Prior knowledge:
Blueprint (H helix, E strand, L loop, with lengths): L2 H23 L10 H14 L8 H4 L2 H13 L9 E6 L2 E6 L1 H10 L2 E10 L3 E6 L5 E7 L9 E10 L4 E7 H8 L9 H5 L1 H19 L15 H14 L8 H4 L11 H12 L2 E2 L2 E2 L6
Antiparallel strand pairs: 1-2, 3-6, 4-5, 6-7, 8-9
Amino acid sequence: MSTAVAKKSTDTFAKIxxxxxxxxxxxxxxxxxxxPINAAQSARxxxxxxxxxxxxxxxxxxxxxxxxNAVLKMVTLGLNPIKKQCYFLVYGNKLECQxxxxxxxxxxxxxxxxxxKAVLIYEGDNFEYNIEQxxxxxxxxxxxxxxxxxxxxxxxxxxxxxxxxxxxxxxMTMEDIQxxxxxxxxxxxxxxxKNFSGxxxxxxxxxxxxxxxxxxxxxxxxxxxxxRESVTEAHVxxxxxxxxxxxxxxxxxxxxxxEVAEEVKEDPEAENQRLYEEAMAGxxxxxxxxxxx
Length: 293
């Protein structure tokens, strides 16, 4: 790393840490056992190895505001890149942070998720389910033979268990899963999708189940006590405080604005590597849970 890039990185992350401390001062409570400063330093180490398509360092080509926005999105979601809970992707001179399936599980756990399991449905399986009066899906029967494992995958389902022991099931047909894959830059044609389609199918249905929990919940799990302001409100308050004190943060204000949960599409090379790593995270028909969850 050149001296200029090293100085740019040091200055950028010093301002990011200043912003994090400012958010904490205005009342934002991060998840228990989560250190946003440590996570930001982990992001810095990851970014030292992150390259764009031409092989240049992300810290060299990306603008300081986009780096700050990506890292702030990560910490406001309470994620850690060392645990593969999110990924940093370079788009031109912009850095983006994308939540991984492990990250969705981690967030869902803060909203009451106790456990999640994904199961594949093969052609020829005896598979039946019921829809309960409250609208929840319950698997009434699923039996398969060892020989089924070599047959065509026709769907998958994820069973979520909440802390209050409520159990729910999310079912996706293979067509649903493939349509979800098509939302990515490779349209589901990456090596990971082709060579590890079963593991990728399980991750897709887990993602859908976890996002349903996350999107139907409020921000209470991110805060220690009620009532508290949301992360966005605290960010605005901090901005007002900074402006009132006439302190320059050093980034262009228009570029500095960030969205907490924006979805981004991945470039093919980055997606291939990410999907391969995620596919290798599952073994023996079960999805591994990160020991840090």
